[in-house]
Amino acid sequence: MNDGLRDALEAAARDEAGANARKQFGECLAATLRAGGQMLWIGGAIIGPDRAEGQSPFDFGSDATVGLATVMQIAGELVSGAVLLLGEGNRYAAAALIRQLVEVEYLAWAFAEDEEEARDWMRSSRKERQRFWKPARIRERAGSRFRGEDYWEHCGKGGHPSPEGIYLLPDHCAPEASASFWWCDMAIHGHSVWRYALAAAKQFGQEDVLTSLNEANALQDAETHWRDGDPFIELCSRLNPPPGGLVGTLVRLRQEREGK
Fold this sequence. Notes:
Layout: H1 3-14, H2 16-46, H3 63-87, H4 91-113, H5 115-123, H6 126-132, H7 135-142, H8 148-158, H9 176-204, H10 207-211, H11 214-229, H12 231-236, H13 245-257
Helix pairs in contact: 1-9, 2-3, 2-9, 2-11, 3-4, 3-5, 3-9, 4-5, 4-7, 4-8, 4-9, 11-13
């Protein structure tokens, strides 16, 4: 990264409108995950064959739907907590929550691949979760979808106590742009949970429950506002390698809108 781009990123990170757009997106994402999880939990507790067939240890209608709902609610709490911590400048604690969010993303992917994964996870013992749903095992099943290096970087900076996390601590913090990257990182993984949840809900026959939420519409509007109102997004297009995930998508959409 050259000095000019670094300075521009720092200025964009301090842009008040851009910071507000990032924060609004994070808050909408947390609200949408929470609301979606709550609606699926209510429906899954009541509707489904598992209770009638004597299959659910919890007497739920659908253990798979409740499993997906649980993962969504966990994601909503993690995003909400990260928003608060980043807003207070506590980057290290926010990074710890984002690392957990990465693990939730893995689970959401597994549930989207196979409804039985959500059902079995909901009914699993601790030993079974360690055997089948550890992050490393899910990455093995996912092929090249998730990078182990990305996960271990999250662990080093916010999961396990490590010297790698020193630059997130008070009095050692890197420039303000690094905080904006953590906002974007949270958005990438949190929004990925939402997309996988939509795919899983479609497989479970529950897609309409999520797409009909007022919060889902607000999330779309907040995404558009962030894309168009945050100069940090446009500057990310100059990075090499270019950003992936949600931020990369926002960059491409913004460039298409401007005819670039």
